[in-house]
Amino acid sequence: MLRAALIGFPAVGKTTLFRLMTSVEEARDGTRRAEAHVGIAKVPEPRLDRLVELFRPKQRVPATVELAEMVGHATTQSLVDIAAFRDADALLHIVRAFRDERVPHTSGSINPVRDTRTMEEELILADLGVAERRIERLHRDLKKHKSDDLEAEQAVLTKCQATLEAGTPLRRMALEPQASKLLRGFQFLSAKPLLVINNLDESDLPSGLEETDPSLQEVLREADAKAVAVCAKIELEIGQLDKESAEAFSADLGLAESGLDRIIRASYELLGYISFFTVGEDECRAWTLPRGTVAQDAAREIHSDISRGFIRAEVVAYTDLIEHGSLASCREHGLVRLEGKTYVVRDGDVITFRFAT
Ligand SMILES: Nc1nc2c(ncn2[C@@H]2O[C@H](COP(=O)(O)OP(=O)(O)O)[C@@H](O)[C@H]2O)c(=O)[nH]1
Ligand SMILES: [Mg+2]
Predict the structure, then answer these.
(1) Which domains are assigned to the chain?
(2) Minimum-distance ligand 1 atom for the alpha carbon of 199
C-alpha cells in the first residue's frame, strides 16, 4: 500500500483535503496521536469498475492509500519524530493559492512559490541535522575501532551532508544501489518523492488546473518535484451534492475528474506505481505495486503464504480480458500466459496465483 504524508504550513487546506480523501480514521503513533491524523483513501480505478461489470462479484475492493496529515502544532521536526510521516513513501505538500481573506495566512501573503521553497529548505535542514548527528557518532566510533562498513556509511553520509549544505534535496542525488540501500534506514525527508498540491482559488478554475505558473515550474524543476492543482473548497461543495447535480456542477466548472482522483493519479505517476487485478465471483480487487515488482513479491501483497508456496501466475492483460469477455475465452485464444516467480508484473495485469500450502 502506498503511504503518503500530507504536509504544509497552517491553514492551507490540509484537513479539508484529508477529510475529502479519507473514509476511516485510524489511531497510530499512540501518544503522539494529536500530531498526526491517519486515514485510508480509496484509489479511483475505472478498470476495476469494468471488471466488476464483467464478473459481478459479491465484493468490489479498491486499492487503498494511507494518508497521514500533520495537525495542530506539528513542525518539520515532527516529520522526523512521527513514524507515520517518516515512513511515508511520498510527501504531498499542500500550498495555498486560494485568496479568501477570511482565512488568515501565517506568513502574511499568498505565495505558493515561496511556500514551496521554504518547506523544501525545512526538509533539507531536518535531514542535515540527522546526517550531522550520525556523522559525529561514526567519527567517534571509528576512532575506537576500524570498520569497513562504518567507513562506507561515513563516506555516503558525508556526500549527503555536502549536498544538503548546498541547499539541494537528497532526491536529486544520483546514488549507487549500494549507497541508496545504506541510506534507506535514515528515511531522509528530502529524499522522498515530492508532490506539490496547489490549492487554487475558485476564480482560478478551470485554467489553473492545467497551467502551472512558470516560476513555480522552475522551483519544481530544481526540486525534482511534480505538482498537481485542486480547489478544496469546490471539492467540498461538490461532495455535498447528489450525484447528478455534482456531475452537472463539475462539468460547468470544467472539472473532468475529482480533486481526489487527480491527487492520487499524480502520486501514482510520481512514484511509478502500477495496478494489477485479481478477479472472481467472490471479489474483484485492485492492488498497487511499484513498477518493476516481480510476481512472487506481488503475491506477497495478497498473502505471505501465496508468495511462499508460489507455483505460477496465470496472467492475462486487462485489455484482452475486456475484449474477450471471460477468462475461459482468453484461455481458448492463448491469451492467458503462465509466468514464474521472476515475471515482472505489468500495469493492468489480471493475475490468478497458483500456490501450494
Ligand atoms: N476559500 C477557500 N478556503 C479554503 C480552501 N481550502 C481550505 N479553506 C479554508 O481554510 C481554512 C483552513 O483549512 P484547513 O483545511 O483546516 O487547513 P490546515 O490548517 O492546513 O489543515 C478553513 O477555514 C477552510 O475552510 C479553498 O480551497 N478555498
Ligand atoms: Mg489541519
Answers:
(1) 2-44+62-106+193-271 (3.40.50.300), 120-190 (1.10.150.300), 292-355 (3.10.20.30)
(2) 27
